[in-house]
Amino acid sequence: MQIEIESEGALRVLLETRGELRGVVVQRLDLRPLSDTLRKADARGAVFLGCTFDTELLAHVLGRGAMVFPSLEGLPFEPYRQALYTPDELLEGFDRNEPRSFWTASRDARIYAWYERTRRDAAVPVFDALAQRLHDHAIDDALGDLLHDPRRARKVVGVMGGHGMKRGDPVYRDVARLSRRLAERGYFLVSGGGPGAMEATNLGAWYATRPEAELDAAIHVLARAPTYRDDGWIATALDVRAAVSHGGESLGVPTWFYGHEPPNAFATFHAKYFSNSIREDGLLAIARHGVIYAPGSAGTIQEIFQDAAQNHYGTCFDVSPMIFLGTKYWTSDKPVFPLLERLAEGHTYGKMLSIHDDVDAVVAFLEEHPPVPFVK
After folding, report:
1. Do residues 85 and 255 touch, judged by C-beta distance below 8 A?
2. Residue spans of beta strands (DSSP E) within 99-212
């Protein structure tokens, strides 16, 4: 079993109890204060990710066969980060008195600008591609720590829908109310982390401990800046978030592939990736207790069939509910649901499909249909 060490305190305890580093992964620590102790430890098979060494310690661990991934300099992000992002970390540099400062000065925008420069190249430079992969690996690891914490089991439910959904629209309110009710019942809500339906999801979870009337009042305030292109979009969100001192937890899983969409302020955690393909597949895979589809366009429809493939072939081992919000939208405007019903004929997930206009009906179906093991 591999042991992950992400703090100096944990490393000290390990050295005191085991006295060796075999099979240990040490992530992004300054090891110089422990150099004398570490040089006495067996480091065979150890892995060091982005750690800082003095010359003698580095020679020691390399000489014992350890693997060292060096720090990467000159990047606007930390490729070996130990935790998921917070909204405030991504918004760092935003000045509410200068609404456009998000696009020019925030940490999120600086990373996106770097990514866009590398993405325009015919071939992404090897160093940049490696840095992105290392970063996304670190996000995967941090996400696993969050979702598989033995102290707290999480019943993860995903909500997908369009990024262009306006604050204050009836369907935005429905998504927020639905998410609030699910979070209130102990589900852990996950969205794509951006604006529109994604923001409504995380907003509803944030208000899980508050009366629904307060959520409605919050949406009224947010609607002053209906879309993420409006200058007050971030500032109004920060004001609304500040009105609830201890909001409910939820997760956003955004990507710099769609970096023109800012992260929303209501997700407690943001697992932000460079690779959209890893992000899309992972976002659906972690939602073991089901995915709810609010109205959306091409991106949402892509997610529907990606989710259907996971259920159809059992690639995630369980079969989970797929619930559609908006009967007319999903049977007439974008008639995906009838096709999906045909596709699911004779398969277990055919019994996991449902479509509703009523939020309470969505909640009831989800509670009545927990995930079941996939059987060929």
Report:
1. no
2. 155-160, 187-191
